[in-house]
Amino acid sequence: MDTIAYNTTKLVPQWLNKGDNAWQLISTTLVSIQSMPGLVILYGSIVKKKWAVNSAFMALYAYASCFIVWVLIAHKMAFGDRLLPFWGRAGVAIDKDYLINRAYIPASAGGNTDSPMTKPFYPMATLVYFEFAYAAITLILLAGSVLGRMNIKAWMAFAPLWLVLSYTVGAFSLWGGGFLYQWGVIDYSGGYVIHVSSGTAGFVAAYWVGPRLKCDRDRFSPNNILLMLTGAGLLWAGWTGFNGGSPYAANIVAPLAILNTHIAAATSLLTWTGLDVFFFGKPSIIGAVQGMITGLVCITPGAGLVQGWAAILMGVLGGSIPWFTMMVLHKKSVLLQKVDDTLAVFHTHTVAGVLGGILTGFLADKDLCNMMLPGDEYGVVYGGGMMQIVKQIAGALFVIGWNIVITTAICFVIKYFIPLRMSDEQLMIGDDAAHGEEAYSLWGDGDKYDATRQTTIINTEEMQTSNITAARGVTVQL
Fold first, then answer.
1. Could you please report the per-residue DSSP string of 169-236?
2. CA atoms within 13 A on the CB side of 216
3. How many CB atoms lie within 10 A of CB 117?
C-alpha cells in the first residue's frame, strides 16, 4: 500500500502545541454537548408533554442558527479588531488563511500596543469553534424563559438578532479587549458574558412575549423527570469543558478550575436540597437541579481564580441566595410575579451570575490572578481593595442595562412583523399546532381527541388479541 507523505513542518508549525489544541477541542465538544443534546433533552422533558417538541426545537434551532451567524459575522464582532470600546469590527471567520494561522485575542480596545495579547498555541479555527460553543449555549439558556408560548417564527428571527446585537457586545467588552476588560472587570468564564446576559435577556423577552395560559402557569409538570435528569447530568458534566477550557491551554489552572466547578455545584445542590427539606418537608428533584445550576453559574466568574475553600463558600451562597430570591422574594415582588419566566432563568442565571461576579471580586486569589489576568486585579480578601467590587458591580450593571435595551428593541421590531406569542388556541394545543408533531404517542394535554379513531384502534387491538389467544388455545374475557 502506498504511503501518503505529509509536510509535517507545515502541518505542525513550531508554535502549535498539540496538547493544548487537543484539550481545547475536547473542551469545546463538552460545551457543545451541554447544548446538543444536553439542554435539548432538559428542555424537552422539563415542560408539559404538549410542549416537548417545541421546547427541544427552540434549543436545536438556536444551536444551528448561531453556528452560521457566528462564523459569518459574530466571531469577529466579539474577538476581532476594535470598532467601538464595546464592540469589534464585523467580518467572516471562514477563510482558510485566517483559520489555520495562530489564534489570538486582542487585549487592547484602545490601540495601546503595549497591552498584552492572548495568543494560544493552536490555530484560529480551534478558537472560533470554542467561542461558538459559548455563544450557542447562551442563546439556549435564554430560551428557557420563554418556553411554552413564544411563536416559533418569532424565535427564529430573535435568536440571530440577539446574538449579533447583544452577545457580541458583552463578549468583546469583557473578553475581546473591550473597555471592561481594560478597566479590570473579572469574568473568568462567562458569569457575566453568558449567564447574566442570558438571564436578563430571557426575563425581558418573557415580559414582552407575555405569559403562558393560566392553566399552564398553575400546573406545568415535567413530562419525564428521569429524562430531565439525563439532560441535567450532561449539563453538569459538560461544565468541565466550560470552565476547564477558559485558560485557553491545558495548563495548571485548567484542572483547578474544573475541581472548583464541581465542588461548587455539589455544595450548591446540597444547600438547595437542604433548604427544601427544612422549609417544605421533602426534597425536590427539580429543586436539586436548580441548585446544581446556580452553583455552576456562581463559580463560573472565578472558577480558575479562587481556592477550594472559596469554591465551597460560593457553592453555599450560590445554593441559598438564588433559593431565597426564587422561593421567597419572587412571591412578594409584583414585577417578578408579573413576568412569566418559565424556567426561572432570571434567578438561576442573572442572580447567581451577579452573585458569582461579586464574590470573585472578594475571593479571587492574588497568585492565580497574576497567572491568568493581564492587569493587577485580585480579590479584596487578598488586599485587592474595594475598588474591585465597584468594578464587578459596574460590569454587571452594564451587561444588564445593555440587554434590557437591546432585547426590548429586538422584540419591538419583530413584533411589528410577527406576533411574539402564539394565539390562545395554539397554546391550548401545543406542539401539534406549532409543528404538527408530538413527542409521545399518548393522549393527554394538547391532543385533539378523535373518538372514532380511538374506537377503531381499540376494536382492532381486541381482534388481534382474540386471534392470538385463540391460536394458543386460551380463552380471554374482553
1. HHHHHHTSS-HHHHHT---SSSIIIIIIHHHHHHHHHHHHH-PPPHHHHH----S-HHHHHHHHHHHH
2. 27
3. 12
CA distance 290 to 139: 18
- 22: amino acid identity, one letter: A
Query: Based on the number of CB atoms within 10 Å of its own CB, is 72 exposed (0-12), middle (13-18) or buried (19 or more)?
Result: middle
Question: Which residue is listed with cell 444551528?
Answer: 64
- pTM for the full predicted model: 0.89
The per-residue pLDDT for range 375-396, each reduced to its tens digit, is 789 999 999 889 999 999 999 9
Q: Tens of pLDDT along 438-468?
A: 888 655 555 555 555 544 444 444 444 444 3
Among 390-404, 413-427, 445-459, which stretch is predicted with the lowest mean pLDDT? 445-459
| C-alpha cell belonging to residue 152 | 416559533
Nearest to 196, CA basis, from 269, 146, 238, 138: 138
Task: Give CA–CA dist 150/242, Å, rounded.
Answer: 28
Give CA–CA dist 192/188, Å, rounded: 9
Residue closest to 169 by CA, chosen among 401, 342, 370, 423: 401
Q: Which residue bears the cell 462567562?
A: 190
Distance between CA atoms of residues 316 and 363, nearest Å: 14
Q: Are 74 and 93 in contact (CB under 8 A)?
A: no
What is the spatial distance between Cα 8 and Cα 29, in angstroms, rounded to a whole number?
26
Q: What is the Cα–Cα distance from 120 to 104, expressed in whole angstroms? A: 6
Residue 34 near residue 261 (C-beta atoms within 8 A): no
The verdict on whether omega for the bond into residue 211 sits within 30 degrees of 0, i.e. cis, is no
Nearest 10 degrees: Cα torsion 351, 408, 166, 158: 110
